[in-house]
Amino acid sequence: MLTVAVEGASWLLLLALALCFLRIARGPTLADRVVALDVLNILAVSYCALLAVASGRAVYLDAAIALALVAFLVTVAFARFIERGHLREVRSKEGKPDASR
Question: For a tag site, which of 5, 25, 54, 75 has the least CB within 10 Å?
Fold first, then answer.
């Protein structure tokens, strides 16, 4: 029964992965692509957890935790990058010099 559940979850993760790649390729804005990359990271963490359940080895959970921490830092970095770009656009419209350099 566990094998069927793991296989079903693997197929669902694969479907979600395909939809994520579609959103990354077709995302109209940078924010859409960043959210899709964040979901992609969540799917990778989920797959590591699924491997831990399927194999019975806890080492995959350690990898999932490390990957989740790195994914969080990447998401924060992308958010700061987007915000800086937004501030530059606002300042250029107002005619103020860019002080973020």
Answer: 25
